């Protein structure tokens, strides 16, 4: 099993969610987060004054999936979240040893 964590632009979340649901991947955890990458934020102007926003609002999507589905999910997220601009986000993939459904105590792929 794999845990896929994607940090994406908030404005692209609905596109990603729709693409995942269309492909049959409905389960996900979503969190509003703030962060920055190599660009170290953005410079904006407000009322004539320039200021730096160094922590950009993003959306984090977490999905635990069977190994056979992981690459498809990664491709869906990468394709539907992309704008081609700096700040599109990152996808992190880690291996999950086990999953336990609390209600039934099922384990492994059946608990996903």
TrEMBL record:
GO BP terms: regulation of nitrogen utilization
PROSITE patterns named in the record: PII_GLNB_CTER, PII_GLNB_DOM
Keywords for the protein's UniProt record, in alphabetical order: Phosphoprotein
Gene3D superfamilies in the record: 3.30.70.120
An example Gene Ontology molecular-function term: enzyme regulator activity
Residues bearing the modification O-UMP-tyrosine: 51
Pfam families assigned: P-II (PF00543)
Cellular-component GO terms for this entry: cytosol
Cross-referenced SUPFAM superfamilies: GlnB-like
InterPro entries: N-reg_PII, N-reg_PII-like_a/b, N-reg_PII/ATP_PRibTrfase_C, N-reg_PII_CS
PANTHER family assigned to the protein according to its UniProt record, in alphabetical order: NITROGEN REGULATORY PROTEIN P-II, NITROGEN REGULATORY PROTEIN P-II HOMOLOG
Family stated for the protein in its record: Belongs to the P(II) protein family.
The protein's name in its UniProt record: Transcriptional regulator
Organism of this sequence: Methanoculleus taiwanensis
């Amino acid at each position: 099993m794999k845990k896929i964590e994607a940090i994406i632009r908030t404005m692209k979340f609905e596109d990603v969610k729709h693409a995942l649901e269309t492909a049959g991947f409905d389960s996900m955890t979503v969190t509003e987060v703030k962060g920055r990458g190599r660009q170290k934020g953005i410079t904006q102007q407000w009322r004539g004054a320039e200021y730096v926003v160094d922590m950009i609002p993003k959306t984090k999507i977490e999905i635990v999936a069977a190994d056979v589905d992981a690459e498809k999910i990664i491709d869906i997220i990468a394709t539907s979240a992309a704008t081609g601009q700096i700040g599109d986000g990152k996808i992190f993939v880690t291996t999950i040893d086990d999953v336990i459904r609390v209600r039934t105590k099922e384990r492994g792929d059946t608990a996903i």
